[in-house]
């Protein structure tokens, strides 16, 4: 590790750059810090997606001063209800959700984490013209979707947004025409939905997000120009908490990777604003505003897995922003000319690729992400889709397949090259009607 790199660390800065004389305790802290930087663990997988009931073998290598040391490890799971791990690094998927699997060296000098998502392999999509939700199952080896059936929402409800809680027990839809949210219970064996009631959600509710712990749900209420907050009860119903004025009737809402912040467009559509979530009561506090960027009203915000970068699907350019969760500062990174209207966007689970769904251009653009600074470079513009508009995109947790909702009546199925990020159109499936949005469980 270089001295310049060390000086970027606040501990080293405090010790070496202080105007005061260094005390012996500070000097000891400094040398211990430098020593620990020479001990690290490398895992064969830093992230993974595995199906519930299946397993994944993780392995680790321990390095000291650049030399690979033969060592055993202590393995642990941050949530054994999601995944367990034995002392050989074998991970077993138990229940839906995200979990950190940690390998620690026996001498306690180093550790490394792998972020693992356990999934069921279900896709749910809102059929807004049909006032229902379709349930599909993904073929584990092919990625092909099989339609299992549909569940009615409310007549004339026009369901748009859709989200599940992290544990995979509940599903919620934002019903644009009827002004409410519908609750559904998810059968843990089959994935089938059972209606579980409704709650008023203001005029024209659109998209929804849920906190990683499944405690709160937030909704973009387009008609009332607000973000509405709800607590998720133990029976899968919702309780209204509060409404937060945004000064803009926007359709899309996003949550930070650590679950502590909500991102939304500012009233003039040319900044991203951030709200801090109070986990004691679910209330929101406006804490940050990004630098201004050119925008005609597009508003798809995608977050990077490392939590440091926001990708704003603005027009005529994609705007890349850096988000510091400690200072809540949002700073400008880059702007890349795109000149197409973006409706949906997503970052691949490996953090190396960014995709935009270009709603009126019937195309999907793929960009590589520079891991050092978050900047993007175009590598693909996939065209040739039928229909009149593409809407939203999801990527299943193992990163092999993507699915796109559109208004042709067929979900688009694409495979993803894990090395290059290139998308290949595989085929389509008709879930019963036109889709607005979709989610993966």
UniProtKB/TrEMBL annotation:
InterPro entries: Big_2, Cycloisomerase_2, Haem_d1_sf, Invasin/intimin_cell_adhesion, Lactonase_7-beta_prop, WD40/YVTN_repeat-like_dom_sf. Keywords: Carbohydrate metabolism, Glucose metabolism. The keyword Nucleus does not apply. It comes from the Bacteria. The keyword RNA-binding does not apply. It holds the Pfam family Big_2. Residues 37-115 form the BIG2 domain. PANTHER family: 6-PHOSPHOGLUCONOLACTONASE, 6-PHOSPHOGLUCONOLACTONASE-RELATED. Belongs to the cycloisomerase 2 family. This is 6-phosphogluconolactonase. The lineage of its organism: Bacteria, Pseudomonadati, Spirochaetota, Spirochaetia, Leptospirales.
